[in-house]
Amino acid sequence: MPAAKAKPVKSSRTYRSALRTKGALETRRNILDTAMRLFLERGYGKVTVADIANEADLAPPTVYTSTGGKTAILATLIEEAMQDPIVAETLTSVRKAKSAADVLKITAHGTRVDNERYHDIIEVMKYAAAVDATATDILRQSDAGYRQALGQIARRLRTLKALPRGVTEAKATDILWFYFGHEAWHRLVAECGWSWDDAERWLLAQTFTALIRPDLS
Predict the structure, then answer these.
(1) What does the record give as the DNA-binding region (predicted)?
(2) How far apart are CA 106 and CA 124, in angstroms?
(3) Above 90 in pLDDT, residue 174?
(4) Gap between the Cα atoms of 203 and 30, Å rounded
(5) Contact yes or no for 196/147 (Cβ under 8 A)
(6) Domains in the chain and their CATH numbers?
(7) Would you say 52 and 11 are in contact if contact means Cβ atoms under 8 Å apart?
(8) DSSP 190
(9) Contact between 70 and 131 (Cβ < 8 Å)
(10) What one-character DSSP code corresponds to residue 168?
(11) Rounded CA gap, 48 and 157, in Å?
């Protein structure tokens, strides 16, 4: 009789490696979550890596090895927010939209979801930029990416021949940034106490008036 084939045995080395990887990811997540909480509670400028390590129950060298220093942690938090699929989903829907009204409705809701979901990190980023030159650069890059996405929306409005006379694609991008950028949502929701629903409806109405040809209203 042929000898029975031995069942493959998972290498203990592979198993230990998987455990180390999982542990490293959990440590990284712990550091990022702890840093975010402290940035909100104390302000970015008043938080040190030692504070983050202490709250996360880790040694400071572990924080540096896992995530880097405080600025690197902020950059990672912002990058995670920028990679949210809501941006790509919104732009895809805009490209498929057949009317200017639909383009603006999709944009209003997409930017609302993005700002609502990441309101805390946006606030941390703004305050960090006031005390850290590197954070200022990170904010500038983040805003540039945001404006670039809005530029694609302005291009769709131009393609649909919806822009009023004298409003170029570049100017339309500026108007979209004015109404749907971080500051607009922050002022209405955080400073004025509006609900996100009310802010979305009002900003949509204002943008429609500013960007859509009167004969299409």
Answers:
(1) 48-67
(2) 27
(3) yes
(4) 37
(5) no
(6) 18-77 (1.10.10.60), 84-212 (1.10.357.10)
(7) no
(8) I
(9) no
(10) -
(11) 46
- Integer Cα distance of 182 and 27 in angstroms: 31
Residue type, 199: A
Given this model, what pLDDT does residue 206 score? 98
Q: How far apart are CA 80 and CA 199, in angstroms?
A: 25
| CA–CA gap between residue 117 and residue 113 (Å, rounded) | 6
Structure tokens at 76: 């990672």
Model confidence pLDDT, tens digit, residues 139-150? 888 899 999 999
Beta strands in 75-191 (DSSP E): none
Q: What is the pLDDT of residue 173?
A: 98
Task: Report the Cα–Cα distance between both ends of the chain, in Å, rounded.
Answer: 84
Tell me how long the chain is.
Answer: 217
- The string of DSSP letters for 59-103 reads -HHHHHHHH-SHHHHHHHHHHHHHT-HHHHHHHHHHHH--SHHHH
Single-letter amino acid code for the residue at 87 = V
Long-range contacts (CB closer than 8 Å, 24 or more residues apart) made by 154-159 = 156/94, 156/95, 156/97, 156/103, 157/100, 157/103, 157/211, 157/212
Closest C-alpha to 151, from 168, 171, 173: 173
The tokens for 44 are 């970015």
- pLDDT, one tens digit per residue, over 91-133 is 999 999 999 999 999 999 999 999 999 888 888 888 888 888 8
